[in-house]
Amino acid sequence: MALDLTLTVENEIAKITLAGELDGSNAADFKTKIEEAAAAEPQKLVLYMNDLEFMASAGLRVLVFSKQKMGAGVDVYVVGADEMIIETIEKTGLHHSLIIQETFA
Amino acid sequence: MIETLTVPANLDSLKPIAEYVMKVAKMAGLDKKSMYKLRLAVDELATNIANYAYADDHDGKKDISLESNISQDSLIITITDNGIPFNPTNKIDAEMEVVQKPIEERKIGGLGIFLAFDGVDDFSYQRIEQQNINILTVYHHRD
């Protein structure tokens, strides 16, 4: 699967943009990006998913990892995700711990 | 109508598998949502096979085979491998429990089987002649 990941950190906000398809073949790359973001010790982590077409459970596991890695004090935002991706997040109960928004101001 | 695909059991095969599932789902006239959920179900099972089905010293081919039967009222996808016995239906209860847990307390794993079951109308498993056979059925929800 093809997955493009970009990370920027400004004003203690880490932003990762995901484009393409996220599953077991490339979830390790996403995990590496989360680790890079965590190293910057941001106050917020924002995941832009506007161009993410597909997410399998391997991606969900990285979301769980991101929350645990960042620690309780860091909010993790899922922004602009497709309705099917949101449905997967909700079905697996992760929406209780992530902040799901259409846009991030 | 029957369509088949056989690919090596590795993570690089997830892409051709996804393309195949979307092709047969289109042929069967599934709506967008059903197509996504079916793709997710097959992706999860194929990922498990790629990661766990075949030991390094497995004798013979390490493949994943898919066969689709398209009829008036359903699409049935059968996923077959020759790996070690693995019955996903035995794992579903454990994964259902994971879903109830807060994120902070979760072990990082699982959920794939849960999503596979959730994504189709019927799911069955058989072990026949050294083969794991997973049968996924989606009844028609046409656009």
Automatic annotation (TrEMBL), chain A:
Q: Which PROSITE patterns match?
A: STAS
Cite the InterPro entries for this sequence: Anti-sigma_ant, STAS_dom, STAS_dom_sf
- Looking at the record, the residues that make up the STAS domain are 3-105
Q: Which domain of life is it from?
A: Bacteria
Q: Please give the CDD domains that the UniProt record associates with this protein.
A: STAS_anti-anti-sigma_factors (cd07043)
The Swiss-Prot or TrEMBL record describes its family as follows: Belongs to the anti-sigma-factor antagonist family.
Q: Which PANTHER family match?
A: ANTI-SIGMA FACTOR ANTAGONIST, ANTI-SIGMA FACTOR ANTAGONIST TM_1081-RELATED-RELATED
* Protein name from the UniProt record: Anti-sigma factor antagonist
Automatic annotation (TrEMBL), chain B:
Q: Which residues form the Histidine kinase/HSP90-like ATPase domain?
A: 7-132
UniProt xrefs under SUPFAM superfamilies: ATPase domain of HSP90 chaperone/DNA topoisomerase II/histidine kinase
Q: What keyword terms does UniProt attach to this protein?
A: ATP-binding, Kinase, Nucleotide-binding, Serine/threonine-protein kinase, Transferase
Q: Which Pfam families match?
A: HATPase_c_2
Q: Name one GO molecular function term.
A: ATP binding
Where does the source fall among the domains of life?
Bacteria
Protein's name according to its UniProt entry: ATP-binding protein
